[in-house]
Amino acid sequence: MVGxxxxxxxxxxxxxxxxxxxxxHYDSTVKGAYTAYKPFNSIHSEAVILIQTEQESFRFxxxxxxxxxxxxxxxxxxxxxxxxxKTLVIKRKxx
Length: 95
Description:
Layout: E1 2-6, E2 12-19, E3 22-26, E4 48-53, E5 57-60, E6 76-82, E7 88-94
């Protein structure tokens, strides 16, 4: 199961995680909140993440997937924040 934590200064209208050919959509999420947890076959320490707010859209795309970080079971979330240049910063954490 995988979710997201909104650690940005924005409320999200929509969020999306892409892991290979598998895509999960998440509904609106307020600042500081967690999304619902949704099933994934597996997840790496990084994934393609898209965030849409009222003002802007953000996207994180990893340069590569580190196969040693792939997990197949458990409950994880990506903590999503922005750096000073408004670039998404993601960290996978376990719940």
